[in-house]
Structures are given as C-alpha cells and as structure tokens.
Write a structure and sequence with these properties.
Blueprint (H helix, E strand, L loop, with lengths): L12 H13 L33 E8 L49 H13 L3 H10 L5 E8 L5 E15 L32 E5 L14 E8 L2 E6 L3 E6 L4 E16 L4 E12 H11 L10 H9 L19 E12 L1 E6 L13
Parallel strand pairs: 4-11
Antiparallel strand pairs: 1-2, 1-10, 2-3, 3-4, 3-5, 5-6, 6-8, 7-8, 8-9, 9-10
Length: about 375
C-alpha cells in the first residue's frame, strides 16, 4: 500500500524567530515574585513500594493510554507530574539538583513537580505548528502511537509488592468484533488515506497491533521494554520504563519522538472493576535526543526558514534535570528536559505486531 502523499509546509521564519526571541529573552527575567510568602514544599514523590504481599489469585491486565492531556493545552497539564529530582525549585530558596544555564532557576510546579515539557516546550511546539495538537490527538484516537502496557501476575488487591509490566507503543487498533478481519500482511497505517479498517471505539474490547521494534524476534512473547520489579501501592501502579523507550506522536506529515530516560509509568487502578482509570508517564528527555528529534518534527537544520542555533539555545535554556552525575562533589549541569504526560486509560486486547510509520518531515523539503 502506498502512503498518502504529504504536502510539505514551510514554516514562516518570522514566526519561529519571534517566538524564540520572546522565549530566550525570559532567560534574563526573574521567574518568581520575591514578594511571595514562602510556603512549605511537600514534594509530590512517586509512591513507594508496599510491604511484601501475598495473594493466591494472579491475573493479567492489559491497557492502552490515549487522550493525552497536554495536547489539549490545558493549564492543568503542568500539575500532572511528580518530583523527579528530590528538590523543590520554588521561592524562596529555589533548591535545584543540577546547574541550569546561566544559573537561573526553572521553577517547579506545586509540590516540586517537574514538567518543563508541558510548561515551556509544548507552548512553543503549538505556536509553530498550531495544527499539531489536533492532528496528534486524531492519530491517537485511531490507535496510532498510544502506549500499551501489560501487567503480569497481579494479585487483584490494592497492594502488590511485585508485578511485571511490559510496555510498547501501538501502531493501529480496531474494534473487537473486527479483529478477526485484519490481514496479518496488511501494509501501511491509519495515517494512509486507503487504510481499510475502522478505528478503535475505546470500549475496553478493542484489539491493538504493537510496534514491532518494541519486541525481539520471538514476537509478543519477547518484549524489549520490561520492568519485572514493578509494584502496586494503595491502588497506584508504579513501573520503571526502561531507558531509550521511544514515545512517538504522529500526524501524516511529521512525528515527535521523545526518547525517555529515568522514566516511570504511574497508573491509578480501579480495584472493583479491575481496570486502569488514568495514568501518567514522567521522566527525562535528554538534550541530545531532543535535538535529534527536531527534523522528524519539521524543524530542519539546513533550512533557511529556521534558526537552528536559536532552537538549540531554547532547549538549553529549559534543561532542568540531569541524567549523569557530577565529578566528585561537584553539582552536575542539567542535561535533560523534565516531562510529565497525563492520559486516560482503557482496557485492551493485543492483536499482533506491525511496522510503525516512518516519517521525516525534512526529507525532500529542501532549504
């Protein structure tokens, strides 16, 4: 199946440069009001593991995440993360675990929540590509790029000190009653105009086909991204997402790929219904990986329409976490963007594996 021809869009140079100048100018501004009365900062920490648990009944739970909140540009998205560095970067002390550019603090959200991605990066993304929020969400609703997770050996109770969680990303989904009609050799994805299958209806009975690169050659039985030391604490699932998991968001012209480091999947479970209600993915996006992702998103290094060095400075000015420690007693320099994404969650079934869309918005665009 041939992919839908993509119409290349040119980014107005004045639009990108104006936004970047505004963002970078804030580097010299105060990011807090010194007249504010200091408040105690109780860090919103990732839930800790419960005491060892038993339970004779062991079951599996499969779910997918969609309806990404930050794509709705809702201010509440900035409060949907956790403290990721053990520091409360808020007035009056602005404690920080790493050295930011020019030593200027990047203020945390309430309770020390780290989420510069929602607070500063996505406003830039949607100012340059206003249609991206809608297009990414449409793709998610079609089952393209949703996060899939499978919980193994859950005791069915509010606390379980050890479960296994497999994590992958979906390529497409179909309603349950159509799952038997899917051709295993089908090419393409729902991003193609001639895609033949109806999208999922998100009723808990949909079947999803997963990104083949998230599994070894053994197929579904051999996932690459596994936390065999996850747990459930007071109804909250906590799973460490192995480093280098790629979280990609798509439309027909571009994709945004976030390579996660030091990341967690944190999900709220409804014990009576044995289902996931909502979930967050929190962690770090390294500077080097963020820069590598720009061309697929349409911000091309060789284009005369984009000041790529200004983009680099913008990313540098927002680094607020570190992924490698300092030497000796020195405080490390920040080398990553904090990220917190909040989703709705749905029960799901697994159909098989499929090749993910291959999109690079800069190919053939020219300068």
């Amino acid at each position: 199946m041939s992919a839908t021809p993509r119409r290349k869009k040119t980014i107005g140079a004045s639009k990108v440069i104006a936004w970047l100048l505004l963002a970078l100018s804030c580097a010299s501004c105060k990011v807090y009001d010194p007249e504010l009365v200091a408040q105690a900062c109780q860090l919103k920490s990732i839930p800790s593991r419960p005491a060892p648990t038993g339970g004779d009944s062991k079951s599996d739970l499969v779910f997918v995440l969609a309806n990404l909140e930050w794509l709705n540009q809702d201010g509440a998205a900035t409060t949907r993360s956790y403290d990721l560095d053990g520091s409360c970067t808020r007035a009056p002390n602005f404690d920080n675990a790493c050295v930011t550019q020019d030593n200027l603090p990047i203020e945390d959200g309430e309770q020390g929540q780290d989420n510069v991605f929602a607070k500063r990066v996505t406003p830039f993304i949607f100012s340059v590509f206003p249609e991206a929020a809608t297009n990414f969400q449409v793709a998610l609703e079609q089952g393209v790029g949703a996060v899939w997770a499978k919980v193994h050996n859950w005791n069915g109770e509010v606390n379980d000190s050890e479960v296994q969680v497999d994590i992958a990303q979906t390529v497409f989904g179909v309603p349950g009653d159509l799952s038997s009609e899917v051709d295993p050799g089908q090419l393409g994805t729902p991003l193609d105009a001639d895609w033949p299958y109806a999208p999922p209806i998100w009723n808990g009975d949909d079947h999803f086909w997963l990104r083949a690169s998230d599994f070894f050659s053994g197929g579904l039985a051999k996932p690459r991204f596994v936390d065999d030391d996850a747990y459930i604490s007071e109804g909250t699932l906590v799973a460490r997402i192995p480093d280098q998991f790629v979280l990609s968001f798509y439309d027909s012209e571009r994709k945004l790929s976030v390579i996660l480091v030091n990341a967690y999947l944190i999900a709220e479970i409804s014990i009576p219904e044995q289902s996931i209600l909502e979930a967050s993915i929190v962690g770090s996006w390294r500077r080097s990986d963020a820069l590598t992702a720009l061309p697929d998103f349409g911000l091309c290094p060789d284009s005369v329409q984009v000041d790529f060095s200004a983009l680099q400075r913008f990313i540098d000015s927002n680094l607020d976490l570190y992924t490698t420690g300092g030497v000796g007693s020195s405080v490390p320099s920040c080398d990553a963007l904090s990220i917190g994404l909040h989703f709705s969650a749905y029960r799901a079934n697994t159909g098989g594996l499929h090749i993910a869309p291959d999109i690079n918005a800069c190919v053939g665009q020219g300068t």
